[in-house]
Amino acid sequence: MKKIGILLIIICIFISCNTKKNQHTNFYTDSYGRKIEIPDSTKMPRIISAAPSMTELFFQLDGGQFLIARSDYCDYPPEAKNLPSVGTIIEPNIEYVLALRPTLVVASDHFTKESVNKLEQFNIPVYIGKQGENLEDFYNIINDIGHIIKKEEKAEELITKMKTQIREISERAQSADIHPKVYYMISFGESGDYTAGKNTFIANLIRIAGGINISDDANGWAYSREKLFAGNPDLILISHKEMEEPLKKDYTYSKLRAVQDNKIYTVTAGTMERPSLRNIDALLELETIFANKKSIR
């Protein structure tokens, strides 16, 4: 009987080991440097996206059906708005997230570590995708999400296409005769002067398209009015058309050369502010804007 008991234990151990082998687990390293464990499953994944860039990416990978909720700011593509919202890109409604029973939450590095910790206490893995300056970060995110939702071939296709288009745009920009001084205006005046510093995704797009970002002398988003006037850009980029008239009417900012020369350009909203395949649209738009700049003094 003792021998039979030992044999049963050995068999159970053998079965358990083989079961674990069959339950393959993938590990991903997010922008917080954490190793995320996401086991493969035959069941339909239930994923919540708390970042506009991530939401776009799922649809671009033909994986929109895996999303069960979004953030307040996930507005593209239009069908994403049909998903319920769990709150902001910084702190979602944790109770609502738990009620939706997600198998994974994806977010950007705006997401607080406190929110990550709360969700992981309930064994909900959270993948944080870095929205840094380097496009390589975005390529890594495409690759990771492609593996997670088993769209590896589509991910590879998107990365290859994006790299090719960016290389072509960059080569044209490098050979161009015109490299205007550019200022990306997020806000001005009483709202404060905010722009895209050198370590931002937006600044990188400006450089790829052949512009000289005057706020490359700053990190982050805050900028000083003194630096803006010292840089005196050839043109100003805005993402919302309604900013243009107040800018022209402002006694102080109307003295900027770009304002006086009527070189204020509205870039299609959503194409520059987040890592996305639509960044190509933004780059082509910038390329056209920069090429039309004929009167740099």
Number of strand elements = 10
What's the gyration radius in Å? 24 Å
Main-sheet strand order equals 4-3-5-6
Structure classification: alpha/beta
Oligomer: single chain
Please give the share of residues in helix. Answer: 40-55%
Order of helices and strands: HEEEHEHEHEHHEHEHEHHEH
Question: How many distinct helices?
Answer: 11
Q: What is the CA–CA distance across the termini?
A: 97 Å
Mean pLDDT: 88
Largest sheet: 4 strands, parallel
Q: Please state the overall shape, judged from the principal axes of the Cα atoms.
A: globular
Quote the beta fraction.
Answer: 5-15%
Instruction: Please mark out the parts with pLDDT under 50 across 5 or more consecutive residues, or reply none.
Output: 4-23
